[in-house]
Design goal:
The chain has about 500 residues and is α+β, with helices and mostly antiparallel strands. It is about 50% helix and about 15% strand. It has 17 helices and eight strands. Strands 1, 2, 3, 4, 5, 6, 7 and 8 form an eight-stranded antiparallel sheet that branches. Helix 10 (about 160-180) packs parallel to helix 12. The longest helix is centred in the middle third of the chain and has 27 residues, at about 215-240.
Length: about 500
């Protein structure tokens, strides 16, 4: 006769085996993604919070499990298989179709993380059933926060530095604590408030005692510690108030409602293998050639034949690119009229936008064109320009369909011993003295609008400035002018 302990061991073993299969399949299917995220986090990116969320979700799931009562063993394996297979298909389509389509926005959107979330949920449905998985919907919602845009928007709004990343993580920690302690709505609110306060205290101590700690440490330590303390304290308080033992499961453990299915297990394993074969976009980081003697902190000399009319610094740039980063705009005007540049004797004007940082990874975290306030932009495929001295630039024509304006855009990157730069020369198709130039915008809402235009308009736009698969016969009107200015700037640095 089977004892209760043997029965419990059997149930726990079956749960552990199924969970292990799901985790192994998810890890294998998106192995390249996990490696790339770890590399980005090691270079100072805030994406490391993705590895903290599963720990918070585990605390939340434990809270739901502890307070869940006995349930009827109702299930429908056909429904489980249908929903699970649809989810796996959506995961494959997101990774194989959407992610390459929006290659230019890969670092911002990380659609492969969304695909991994879909895969994980679908695999759990196949292995454990739809009803058990749906009971943990708050935990799945918490894990969905791994999709970076909302997190990054809040982090930028709070300042963009390591402390802002930690505070943003505390919002998610408070949500996890509310789930874990939320036997009632009041207890959930109290748990969320306590987690945020405890985490804020730890974050303040870290800021004072360990100011040079990595951004991942600011994200992980306060949030995990706060949720652990709040969940433990509120659990002990709840049990003792009712005179109950501290044993988490003081009731019989129900067997798995989803019957064992070797076909479901084989489907999850096969899906993991097939999705692992799907490549994600290669690193979009444009090369930053090293220029001997290049010093980032020195302002660039105005090219001969041009006069600087104004210079403006954007203090909000470090919120996006990170501490130690700056963005500057120079407005230049030609000293003389050049007939090849304008046939009405007008002296041309251009703007020079320069993003400076300690390293190239900070600059490449935000694609260039999404930072500008352009309604319904279209961007032509690039033309490669050799500026000499080992520097190659990218030339694009940018059109704003809503305002019926266009610009010629020449961009290149370089680096030296003291940091890296991205320089953009912009010339307006309108040669008048009051011609409008695209303005950088300190607005995540505006950036989100730019990103959504690509999704909603599809092939009507080419936002991938590095695209090579779109034929175009467009002419870059101010090509020669921008090349001469760029070559003068490069030569000035080399000299």
């Amino acid at each position: 006769m089977t004892t209760e302990r043997e029965r419990l061991r059997c149930i726990v073993t079956r749960i552990a085996v199924r969970a292990a299969l799901v985790l192994l399949a998810t890890t294998a299917a998106f192995w390249t993604t996990w490696v790339r995220l770890a590399h980005d986090a090691s270079t100072g990116s805030s994406i490391g919070y993705v590895y903290v969320l599963p720990i918070l979700a585990i605390f939340a799931a434990i809270g739901i499990t502890v307070r869940r009562g006995n349930e009827l063993p109702i299930h429908d394996r056909q429904t489980d298989l249908i929903v699970g297979l649809i989810g796996l298909g959506l995961s494959a389509c997101t990774l194989g179709l959407l992610t390459p389509r929006y290659r230019y926005l890969y670092e911002m959107l990380h659609l492969d993380i969304l695909a991994a979330w879909l895969f994980l949920v679908s695999a759990c449905i196949l292995m454990f059933g739809l009803r058990p998985v749906s009971r943990y919907w708050p935990c799945w919602l918490l894990l969905l926060a791994a999709f970076p845009p909302p997190y990054r928007a809040l982090r930028v709004a709070l300042g963009g530095d390591a402390v802002a990343a930690g505070v943003t993580m505390l919002v998610l920690a408070a949500f996890a604590a509310a789930i874990a302690a939320g036997r009632t709505r009041t207890r959930g609110l109290v748990g969320a408030a306590l987690a945020f306060v405890i985490g804020a205290v730890i974050l303040a101590v870290m800021r004072i005692r360990f100011p040079d700690a990595s951004i991942t440490a600011y994200q992980a330590i306060p949030s995990i510690a706060a949720v652990w303390v709040v969940a433990a304290v509120m659990y002990v308080d709840w049990r003792r108030r009712r005179g109950l033992s501290l044993k988490p499961l003081d009731r019989a453990v129900d067997p798995l409602t989803a019957a064992q299915s070797w076909s479901a297990a084989a489907t999850v394993a096969l899906a993991g293998i097939l999705i692992a074969v799907i490549p994600i976009p290669p690193d979009y980081n444009r090369t930053f050639p090293v220029v001997p003697g290049f010093v980032v902190t020195q302002p660039h000399t105005v090219p001969p034949g041009w006069t600087e009319l104004s210079e403006h610094r954007y203090p909000w740039a470090q919120h996006y690119f990170g501490p130690g980063t700056s963005m500057t705009r120079q407005l230049l005007r030609a000293d003389q009229h050049v007939p090849e540049w304008d046939n009405e004797s007008r002296r041309r004007r251009i703007v020079v936008d320069t993003v400076e940082s300690d390293d190239q990874y900070s600059i490449d975290r935000y694609p260039e064109f999404v930072l500008y306030n352009m309604a319904q932009p279209r961007i032509s495929p690039p033309t490669r320009i050799d500026l000499g001295h080992g520097i190659f630039a990218r030339l694009n024509t940018v059109l704003d369909d809503r305002r019926l304006l266009s610009w010629t855009w020449l961009t290149w990157n370089w680096s030296g011993a003291t940091g890296a730069e991205r320089i953009s020369l912009i010339a307006a198709d309108n040669h008048e003295w009051d011609a409008a130039f695209p303005e950088p915008q300190p607005s995540m809402l505006g950036i989100f609008e730019n990103v959504m235009h690509q999704f909603l308009r599809g092939r009507a736009v080419v936002l991938d400035s590095e695209s090579t698969d779109v034929d175009s016969d467009s002419e870059h009107k101010d090509r020669d002018m921008l090349i001469k200015v760029a070559q003068a700037i490069v030569a000035g640095v080399e000299s």
